[in-house]
Design the sequence.
């Protein structure tokens, strides 16, 4: 009798988990709005950094409006600040690409699904990182170097083209 109850509880729990892992249309719309808002924020940040860093002359950047020569240390500091801002802009642009890719997955009805395993990505992960491509387990394996990131072209081969073989498969064919 007790075993029957345990089995019933397990089935109920697993079906509840399955329901929690599936994204509803409302969830997807909410994540889409979060992605769009984050995208607007990043575009604004990049534009502001670009205006601050790249469009100023050396004299304006130093805050010196006179025509006096600039000290070498000031030039070094300005160059460091400019390089730092360029690095920030680069990372922001990479994040912008990730967000654009996530928005594309929303349009293709593939949002919330791990691109490597095909399993649903947990809502908690999407709340923390709405542009996530992979589930927690696969992302962890990527970070540890246990797996390599799948190529995006593998998902839809061009019509009439043969799928590309890995180097191991090519070596097997030649022997």
Sequence:
């Amino acid at each position: 009798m007790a075993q029957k109850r345990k089995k019933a509880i397990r089935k109920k729990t697993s079906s509840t988990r399955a329901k929690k892992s599936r994204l509803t249309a409302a969830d997807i719309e909410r994540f889409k709005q979060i992605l769009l808002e984050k995208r607007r924020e990043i575009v604004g940040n990049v534009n502001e950094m670009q205006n601050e860093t790249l469009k100023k002359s050396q004299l304006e950047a130093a805050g010196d409006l006179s025509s006096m020569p600039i000290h070498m240390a000031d030039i070094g500091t300005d160059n460091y600040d400019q390089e730092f801002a360029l690095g920030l802009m680069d990372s922001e642009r990479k994040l912008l690409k990730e967000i654009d890719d996530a928005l594309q997955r929303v349009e293709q009805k593939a949002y919330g699904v791990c691109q490597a395993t095909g399993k649903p990505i947990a809502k908690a992960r999407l709340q923390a990182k709405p542009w996530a491509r992979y589930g927690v387990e696969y992302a962890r394996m990527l970070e540890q170097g246990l797996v390599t990131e799948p190529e995006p072209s593998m998902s839809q081969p061009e019509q009439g083209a043969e799928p590309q073989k890995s180097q191991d498969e090519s070596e097997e064919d030649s022997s």
